[in-house]
Input
Amino acid sequence: MKTPAFLKKGDTVLIIATARKISEKEIEPAVAELKKWGLKIELGANLFKSRHQFAGTDLQRASDLQWAIDHPVAKAVFIARGGYGTIRILDQVRIKNIKHHLKWFVGFSDVTAIHTELNNKGIPSIHGPMPFNFLKDKKSLDALHKVLFGIKTNYNVKPNALNRVGKAEGEIVGGNLSLLYALAGTDSDLSTKNKILFLEDLDEYLYHLDRMMMQLKRNGKLKKLKGLIVGGFTEMKDNAIPFGKTAQQIILEAVAEYDYPVCFDFPAGHVKENFPILLGKTIKLEVFKTKVNINYPDDVL
Output
């Protein structure tokens, strides 16, 4: 696996929008913060374009993504915000060009489409805060700073009664469940065999969450995992006739027949504490009854 270089002061980073539109005012705090980190910032030519709910047309967003991929100097690319739209432009860009100028791609939610494409090409990326909500939580932002600059970061997570104890070590992959569901069966489909899967999501009906988990199960993506880490499943919705299970119960039921550790409530996703995850890199997962440890081996950070 080819790993981008970690950042240092004076490096150039880019901000582009591949999905929902964003205004200049909305990213001003993030730009100011990145400058405090000693970084130079370049903005995509179409960053503030508007086309209905999107940040410009598909062609404009694809153009900025290709610009970011091909940028010869930049060391990181921040996707401005999530929403919906990245999947619409995947086939219009040459993501494989990233191998010529390796750089970190940072974001979550809809950015899962990019993370998965990069993972399929053996390139790690960072599931973490985006400029739109950069200042939402200082601890998460500090952790992102450390990860980008190659400073070792470990996580200690509070126990959850539904956790399944055990230890595992392997490559962590995943992201937003709805995106993984949408990418299934396409050229961007995610391989999960012998990996630790991370999942998060927002604003889904419980019955649809169950349907997505059943799809992953029937597709074999849950069978040969080394472990499962579940982040935020926030603002879940129910019908007038209740589905009868919580999001966590639905997920646990889907993996009930398998024997690997499961961690719930990892602080990542559409939650206040959105700690960065180095997707595509090896982690050590230790789930005990009283605590959960998630560490990167010494040769990762």
The chain is about 25% helix and 20% strand. The CA atoms of residues 56 and 198 lie 31 Å apart. The two ends are 14 Å apart (CA to CA). The chain has a mean pLDDT of 97.
